[in-house]
Every structure is written in C-alpha cells, then in structure tokens.
Amino acid sequence: MNNLNVKFGLRNMFLDGVRPVNELVQHVNTNGSNAYIDALGLKHKELNDLLRETALKGATSITVQNVFGQRYIGTRLYLPNLAKKMEIKIAPYPGNDLGAFLNGHRLIVYGNAQDGVGNTMDDGEIIIHGRAGDIVAMSMRGGKIFIRDNVGYRAAIHMKEYTGKVPALVIGGTAQDFFGEYMAGGRVILLGLNLSKNERHKAHYIGTGMHGGVIYLRGRVEEYQLGKEVGIRALDSQDWETVGQYVSEFSGHFGFDPAEILQEKFQKLLPVTSRPYGKIYAY
Amino acid sequence: MYSYLLPEFAIERNEDRCIHCRVCERQCATDVHYYDAEMDKMFFREEACVGCQRCAVFCPTNALFIWPHPAEYRPNSSWNREKLQDLKKQAETGGVILTGSGNDKPYRIYWDHLVLNASQVTNPSIDPLREPMELKTFLGRKPDNLEIEFNKGEVKIKSELYSNVSITTPIVFSAMSYGAISYQAYKSLAMAAKKFGTLFNTGEGGLPLNMRKEYGCSAIVQCASGRFGVDPEYLNAACAIEIKIGQGAKPGIGGHLPGEKVSENIAVTRMIPQGTDALSPAPQHDIYSIEDLSMLIYALKEATNYEKPVSVKIAAVHNVAAIASGIVRAGADIVAIDGLRGGTGAAPKAIRDNVGIPLELALAAVDKRLREEGIRNKCSILAAGGIRCSADVMKAIALGADAVYIGTAALVAMGCTLCQKCYTGKCTWGICTQDPYLSKRLNPEITSQRLTNLLRGWSYEIKEMLGGMGINAIESLRGNREHLRGVGLAEWELDVLGVKGAGE
User: Fold this and answer.
1) What residues pair up with B99 in beta bridges, in sequence order?
2) Closest residue on chain B to A95 (Cα)
3) Superfamily of segment(s) A96-271
4) pLDDT for B149-163, tens place per residue?
5) Contact list, A2 vs chain B (CB under 8 Å)
6) Which of A132, A195, B118, B404 qualifies as a FRET site for B182, CA 20 to 30 Å off?
7) Residue A48 in contact with partner chain B when CB distance is under 8 A
8) How far is A207 from A226, CA to CA, in rounded Å?
9) Over the stretch B380-389, which tens digit does the pLDDT of each residue have?
10) Which part of chain A is CATH 2.160.20.60?
C-alpha cells in the first residue's frame, strides 16, 4: 500500500465509531418541553446529535447529566426557525469549546468548564458555577458569560463589539496572563472575590494590544502587570451603573451580596488608542 | 513624501498630442498631473507616480508615456536601487517597509521549467470541440472505499459520503476580503463565481448581509485569527469554510487593516466599530497545535451540522508536507497551500520577499507525502500563489492539486497593473481602495463579465491541452507526473517535484 508498512494509519477521534441518533434514544427522557439527557459514554458528536434532535422535537429546557469532557455543547444549535431559545443545564464537567458560536441559547454549568468557553459566541448566556480554562470568551461578539471562580490564560482575547451588540464577561475570581489581549470591544469585569486582602491579581500583560472595549477590575493590580496599550482611569457615574448592573446579575446567579462587592475599589482599564499599531509602517 | 529619493517612474508628455482635456488629472489618485490655467499647460510631479498606467491608457491622444525612471546610482548588483531607496525610506521614518501584491524577486519559477506531454501516434489525441471533456471537480474528503449495492438491476452507493462542493472548472478565486478590496471588486468576484459555477473566497472580512442569500452558495467563508464577521449565519450561508492559518505573501504574521479603511459598511460586515484598526493576530489563539486545529475544524463542522467541507489554508514553508499531513489527520477536508509568490493587499516587504518556499515544490512534496501515508483521498488540495495562466493550472494539477486559487490573475482581469501600491488605498483602478470616487470606476456587471471571460478562456485552453494528451477528464491528470517533464532543473529539484527530466 505504501512504503511505511502502515495501511491507512488514520484514526478519527471525533467520528470513528459514532453511533446514529436512533440508536441513542435511550439516553433521552422527554417530558413536554423538558428533556433529560444522560451523557454517560456518549462521544462529542453523539451528544450534540442528541441535543439537536431533542431541540428539533420541541424541547426548550434540557438537562444534561454525567457530562465528562464532551465538547461543543450548544454549538450545533444554530436553528434560526426555533420559536424560543433554549436553556440547557449541564453537569458536571463539559469539555472544550462550550458554547462555541453559540446562537442565543442559555447554558448553565454546575461544575467546572474547560478551554474555549464561548469561543466566537454570537449571542446568549453562559453561567458557570465553578471555574473555566484558557481563552474564555475568545472573539466573543455578543451575549453574556458569568463565571463564579477563576479563569485561565488569555481570557477575553480579541472580544469585539459593533453597533448595539456589546458582549459582557464577568469573572468572580482572578485571571491568568494576557487577560484582555487584543481586546477590540465589549465589557469585562474581573472581581477577584477569592483573593485575600491586599493580594494582587495573578495576570500579567493585561490588555496587551487592546484597542477597544473596557475592563473593570476590582482589587489590587500593579502598573507593571498591565500591557503598554492600556491606561487606568477612575469610574464615572455611568461606569458605576454598568458595573452595578452586571454585579447584581452575577450575584443573583451565584448568591453573593452585590452591595458588599461594590464596596471595594474598582479601576477601569481603557485602551490608550484605537490604533495601537498605526505608526509602525513606512508607506 | 520622502526627501533624497529618485522618482520611481519617469513621465513624458508629448505636447503636440496633448489637448489639455485633463483626463490624466482626474484619473490619477496620487495627484501626479495638474493643470495651470494661466499657462494653459499640463504639468506633473514625477515623484508621486506609482506607474499604474491609468493615465496613459485613458489619454485620448496617447500623449503620455510612463516608464521606470532611467536615473541610476552607480551600478551595483548587491546594493541595487531598490535596496538603497528602502534604506533611505527607513532612515527617514524608522518604519517597516510595506508593499502590496506578490513577491517580485527572481526566484526560480518552476512552472517555466516544466513542460506538458501530448499524444503522438501511439494513442490518439481528442478534439474537445467535438468530444465531451470533463473539468468538473469535487472539493472535499473522499471515502476510503465505496460499497455498492446491486438490487434487481438497481445500483446504489451504500457508503456514507462526505460533503463535497462541485465546481465546473478547477479554478477558484482566492481569498480577498471586503475591506482589502472595494465592494465593487468583491461583488464582481462573487457574481463571476456564481455565474460560472465556481467559488470565491470572502477572506477575513465577512460576507455582507445583503449578499448572503444570493452569493452564499458560491462562497468559501474564512474563519481567521481576528474572527472578523464570523457568526453562525455567516458560516451556514457558505458552501465551504476555510480556516486561515497562513498566507503565502506573509507566512507567520497577521494582518492590520488600518482604521481609516474601516468605513461604516466595512465596520458592519466585520462587526467592529468604525475607524478602529482591524487587527488579525499572527496565530489563531485557540490553535497552538494540530490537536487544537482539530478542535476548531470540528467546532466549525458542529456549527454547520457537518454539512460543509472545512478547508485549512497554510503558507508553503519548509516542513509543509509534514504540516499538511497533520492538517489532514486533524480532520480538514481541503488543504490550501499558498506559495512564495502569493499576493497580498499589504505585507512587510522583508517578509513578502524572503519567507516561504515556491508553491511548485511545496505542492509536489505535500501530494507525495499524503500518498505515501495513504491519506491523499481524505482531502482535496487547493494550490495558490503565482498561477498566471491555464498552463500553470495544468501543471499544478499534474503535480497533485485538485484545483487552484487565482488571486492576482483575477485582479489583472479586473484592471490591476501590479503597481504594488495596494496598501496605500489609492488604487486608481478602483480595486484595492475604499474611496467611493475610485471604487465606482468598477462596474460589477462589466467586471464580472471580464472575470467569466477569463475563466472561459482558461477552461477552453485546459480542455485543448487535455485533449492533446489524449485524456478526457481533469481527474486523469491529477497527480499524473508522467505528463510532466523538467527542463533545466537540478537532480534534487526533479526529485522533489517527482518528475523526470525531458527526454528521460
């Protein structure tokens, strides 16, 4: 066959052995517009096949149990003809790219999420009762994400906004390096609720290459932790209104006291220019 | 304007012919020509001329002659004029030297060292005027084997087939975004692709809402590092999706669309605020490995219900064959390879002219590697970067491509003269500009006709060459190196290309 003595040495980890939907019906339990899916032993595609199938059959509220690393939950639900957006409850551990390209649905995770939460998300809501991995909200263009605990590296990278569509990301804990890198729009709120008194945020290079949007940061951050493209400002009354609104929404999801959160000092990080690299070329 | 620089072009105006109609003044986007009413005379500023030849071809009396400026420093093959001028520009600005379109340096063009075969005596050639000749091409993953069911005289394919896109000729328009090129130029490509039954590529600039319904079925939409204009509707409107990892003109770097080009319409299509820089980072930040690439490929397949083939476009670089193998294993249905001479709207000259390897070698290496590994059927190969004519298409297909991307050739069909000033946004031909005064020079009805003419001409030439070889389907030429011979190539070059020398 070939001079490597390996015949068709290609294993497709996504599609090999995927069972057709009709063989998986025992995983679904439907009751009117409510459905229950047991994800135990399902492959990435099998679970998403089932979700789509269940949505098309009219379920608008779906609970998915025993999720252990299945990816792309919510991604296959671009269904423009659906009368009502769906609510999907997930427990305990959804895999990478949760809600990637999400189209207006609401995902609630009772546990931790992995990398790529809300990757290029278009609209909707993701609420995580736990932590999330790297590149949360990468290139997110609309909707809201609430994360109770910490996030990994490069959160909010290249988030963007246009006209009325302004995405929001609220993080209860702290973030790792390159937080808000290349940010082009949107609102990010980092609360640092799990930091001890006077402990600074973990991230370095915050807002490197940032050229749009705004980061509201609660708790301590040193000048050297910021990228050179961002400036620090105090919050004005409109900022406080925005922060107050998102913080109370956040507190509502996770049972915090918004007044207590808002007592602490907030800082506002803004890009110093919308054109950080306008002057590096010789024309 | 720079000091101490020789003008790039010299202008000569034949005063006997000039009728002072001022067409040259109106056509020039860099204000080279101007009229002095008191003296009733046309004047010019040579130093602003980019040599696009717009004024010369529009002059009704052929009074203008534009040519490379004859002044030279002392001849020096190492420190040539271009090097000196670039040094002076950088000394003045401290900036990165920008340029546009493809690599213009004299690297070996392998197409010009490969010759095609024809039938003589031992098998008959075919006349495409009278016999059917198949150029139809399917892009996408093919099954390892086909299970066929015979039932009472009925034949059915039992195997599950992957989604493929059918094109009527193996020529596709390369990625050129709305923003890099004008709306008129972008729409011309879309109209021509639809009319001819082939595809255009949106680049990383989104697909305007008003074009989605009509032209989505002819569009390859890109999902690149900036994710501009990407929403679920955009992905689902297209017939294929391309993940852009790299570009032949600037492998390894991202792109900056300057804020002044981000007009209202471009802002809406890219989904960013008006006037901000559209920055495409160098890497895709969710892809740091083949496993991560696989994750995005399947994310896109999930987002489109596994209905569209996913392409991955890379620049041709040193280990391109191993990279391509990884891409196929990651689940890509199409691998697009963009070579050293691929074009661009803007790139640092140091990178355009020095980074990457020639397409011909990369293509042959990738095809060979995928065959050796037994996975060639799992993807289609699209070859891009420096395809200038139908013979180049034939040679690319014989080296293993399924189809080719043409960018520069399509731009030239629309009017481009390769002045390489795309990055200034002052394209007099109305292609690479967002200035409404310039872009309205293109009428998509007429320009798309010029593009379909080009596709028709090339397709006919391809049929003629195929017929001459005695084969009647483009399928039979794919990867068929027996139809190629090398002329004037060294042993190692023949070896990489996998072709014999002429006469062997």
Assistant:
1) B347
2) B295
3) Glutamate synthase, alpha subunit, C-terminal domain (2.160.20.60)
4) 998 989 999 888 899
5) 371-374
6) B404
7) yes
8) 7
9) 999 999 999 9
10) 96-271
